[in-house]
Amino acid sequence: MSYKRKETGKLGEELAAEYLKGMGYRIIQTNCRLPEGEIDIVGQDGECLAFIEVRTKRRLEYGLPAESITLRKKAHLIASAESYMQKYHLEHLPCRIDFVSVDLSQPEPKLELIKNALGEE
């Protein structure tokens, strides 16, 4: 991954964390690495544990940020969330996977939250 892509991703994750806090989320952990993959943000929304994938784009020629989530990435997100829940003994909590789309193609960043993005809780 190029330096510029890493910096774009890091900026997107920082913007997303602040955005989520403003939406009432409590940020528990960022950049959580597990054998199954990385979880960008682990947060709590009310009683629900949220595993948040952040997608950031500077240019939209190839689609919106949320459209870049592949089936393989979805499978990794599910496996990572399950692993996190087991590791921290949180299986009793309701959970979901959310996406935050960060569009940096305009002078002002545009963020969008998609709760329960995979349609399962």
Provide a quick synopsis of the model:
This is UPF0102 protein DET0781. This protein has 121 residues and is α+β, with helices and mostly antiparallel strands.
Structural commentary:
The structure is a single chain. The protein is an alpha+beta fold and 121 residues long. The protein has a single domain (3-114), classed as Trna Endonuclease, Chain: A, domain 1. The chain has helices spanning 3-22, 71-87; strands at 26-34, 37-45, 48-57, 95-103, 110-114. The longest helix has 20 residues, at 3-22. The radius of gyration is 14 Å and the shape is globular. The chain starts with a helix and ends in a 7-residue tail after the last strand. The mean pLDDT is 87. InterPro entries: Restrct_endonuc-II-like, tRNA_endonuc-like_dom_sf, UPF0102_YraN-like.
